[in-house]
Structure to design on (32 residues):
């Protein structure tokens, strides 16, 4: 069960990164 901690940490990092990207996309005007 000690093997699950790195997986959770990586999962949390990916989720927080996606949330940060979504926030940045919503705050910045669309540059196309």
């Amino acid at each position: 069960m000690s093997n699950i901690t790195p997986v959770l940490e990586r999962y949390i990092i990916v989720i927080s990164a996606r949330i940060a990207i979504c926030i940045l996309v919503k705050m910045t005007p669309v540059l196309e």
DSSP finds one helix and no strands in the chain. The two ends are 47 Å apart (CA to CA). The chain has a mean pLDDT of 87. Residues 1-27 form one domain.
